[in-house]
Amino acid sequence: MSLLTKVESILSPITDTFDNKLFLTQLYEPSKIYKAADLLSALSIVGNEPGIADKTFYLGEEGVDLGWEYGLVNLAAFLAQCMKETILYDACDENNWDLYKEQYPLSNACGQLGQSYQDYNCAPEEEHMQCPVDPEMQITATTHAHWYGAPPGLFCAPKTIYPQTGFWDYNYWCDNPWNDPPEYCDVYEDQKSGRFDNTKAVASMAGRTDVEGCCWWGRGVIQTTGVCNYGKLNYYLGAGAAQDGRSSRYPEIDFCKTPDKICSDPNYPELKWIAGFFYWMESVQSYDRQGWYYLTALHEFVNGGMTDTSFIDSVSGIVNRGCHNPPCATGEVDGLDQRRENFNIVLQAMGLPSSGGQNRPASSVPQSSTSAGDPIDTSTQSQSSIGQISSLTNYLAQFRDFLEQSVLSYTNLQGIKVQSGIYTFDKLLQSLSYATDTGYAEGKTFYTDKDSLKYGLVNLAAFLAQAMTESIQYDACEEFHLDSTSQRFPISNSCGQFGQNYQDYKCDEMDAVMECPILSGLYIEAVDGGKYNDHRPNFYCRSKAQEPFTGAFDERTSEIYTDEPYPNSAGRTDVEDCCYWGRGALMSKGPCMLGKLNYYMGFRAAGEGRAPLYPTIDFCNTPDMICKNAAATNIAWDIALFEWVERMQSYNQNGWNYIEKLHQFVDGGMSDESFIATVSEILTGSIGNSVPFASQRWSNFNMLLNNLPLKGDQTSSTVGIDYSVFRWSSAENNISNNKLFLMCMLLIAFASVDMLSW
């Protein structure tokens, strides 16, 4: 029996498993585009001689006991990447997903994240294969995203048709039958909102304001992109091979003239898989750099019992970042934990061990000493600060995906969960390293405990729980209008929300020398209100001489009413002296905290001969510079960690000492809600039921403790959801389980949101 026949005999009985349990979208629904039958059709082509360009998909070793296992693992690694790259989104064509300057430029077809796909040229020795760029080519993508207001498919066309391109206005209400002429949501099927806006040129991140020659976006299961890759497909598989008199699998398809055939031609559903296989054979199976050879690593993984993650991590690095040992030059791997999980569940479906071995020599690969799924044993951590921060960051790195997807992310106005652009994982680690190792002054470092890292991790969880509530859930660097009466937001919220007066946040007598002086003449306007930036007016401060009183913003009409004074919840009807609203991850506010930031981290520290982090920023006179620098620096994290060190870790009043209570909470099993409740009161300056979004802060904290995980006993008031119940439901029960899943999500959402947020 040939290797291909053996592999097919294993895969054929489990095609239903692939279709209904593995190839699932974000909604846990079976993909409509990627089917196991098409996968097997493609595999029969690439796994058989001559394959493509005399390259075949590696299916194992003939004449070796269980030699086909190597081929199955190769396929599992391939599918793990496909499930993350495209199947999850049920996409064949690349989606228009790069939200640049709060807009989706139509010229994203030319390249997203600053790239230029038509400039993806071949190396000189292969230049004869690449596709020429035809400026007259016109193509529209077959698939696109389907969220509320999602941009339609990418398209390319000459400048004679589109001299300039604008953007997709995803907020536009398109169903206006009463307009003259009437308007309908008819750009694509099931469109809910949005429209093309070409009234002015809107540039992509790469600066393009047209779509001429821009037909080379990603297609297929691993998003084949650029003139070189399409040219190679044509040279080896398509019309190019036929025209040269060479054997061609698809002689009638010119991948240079009709690259859309990969996604659009129902006669060749296997093409979307073949394009991915071709990339895999070209770039992954042949990968050999810096002593790391793919096939050798594959054999070592199988022979070692298929237990460690280093193999799939390296493969994920090659696919997502172009190297086996990221971050290399392009950054960390996106969705690394998800790719690992995909790999393991595909192996399980194939009947291969994801842990433990079968008839294999003992592994020589060093094993990880800490499982990402077990509660941490931190009783023997290093006592040095350098050792502590290394242990802390290394531990957090295991949970990067969880932190990025569940902590450092927010739900945008279209209901889509996206990662924060300000509060990133890398910036957090950098700021945390500085706060723990260097510190802001003698005795002012982030607490990790010299004997057990667990206390430091719970300290961090408490910090992040507050940051999620204060800023991350809004992707906001600056405070914005949250406190309303009858859907009207007082403009004087700048002075304080929920009954607070920020300019009265003064230092005690000992620290008064650091406090910012109140300068009544200041006029400052907020620069970043996060996801509500375009929907609610920014905070600002201005003297009474310029604006004797302030009114209110009505969210129902999107108008500001200034015909009469409208007080905030503390009674203010003006914005004089009110420049000290919250900024950064904890919304640091008030003349005392901003003064301390200036004293330890800013312009004043530099003037007095200290070596601060931000010597050119005057936190007292120009606090707006905090958020103006948030995108380019770590300042939003830095000032928040400083406030935590300064206000929370040092808190010792009325018999309540933060560090002592932290230890008591950890040693007592981490179930006492009063710990995080008191922390929330201290941070917000409120008491009991007046703490804004109190239950949300507890929910965030408990979620972090359970998922990092820090609790030995995982039972708590926050339910840990086993998503495998829904993912692995039988084909017959899949629909009902999806409904159950959505009902559970709704119940959990209602349970975890404080009623104040309504």
Keywords:
disordered C terminus; Chitinase; globular; mainly alpha; 3-stranded antiparallel sheet; 35% helix; 758 residues; 5 domains; single chain
DSSP helix count?
24
Strand line-up of the largest beta sheet: 1-4-5
The shape is globular
CA(first)-CA(last) distance: 65 Å
* Low-confidence runs: 354-387, 713-743, 745-758
SS-based structural class? mainly alpha
Mean pLDDT: 85
The biggest beta sheet is recorded as:
3 strands, antiparallel
Tell me the domain tally. Answer: 5
Percentage of residues assigned to helices: 25-40%
Written account of the structure:
The relative contact order is 0.08. Helix 3 (36-46) crosses helix 8 and helix 12 (385-397) runs antiparallel to helix 14. A hairpin with a 4-residue loop joins strand 13 and strand 14. Residues 354-387, 713-743 and 745-758 have low confidence and may be disordered. The chain has helices at residues 3-11, 15-22, 36-46, 68-85, 226-236, 239-243, 261-264, 271-284, 294-303, 310-321, 336-349, 385-397, 400-407, 425-438, 453-470, 590-601, 603-607, 625-628, 635-649, 658-667, 673-684, 694-707, 724-727, 734-752; strands at residues 104-105, 139-140, 155-156, 167-169, 195-197, 288-289, 292-293, 409-411, 417-419, 488-490, 524-525, 540-541, 552-554, 559-561, 652-653, 656-657. Strands 1-4-5 form a 3-stranded antiparallel β-sheet, with no helix packed on it. The protein folds into 5 domains: 3-91 and 278-349, no CATH class; 94-217, no CATH class; 385-470 and 651-707, no CATH class; 488-632, no CATH class; 724-757. The chain is globular, with a radius of gyration of 29 Å. The protein is mainly alpha-helical. It contains 24 helices and 16 strands.
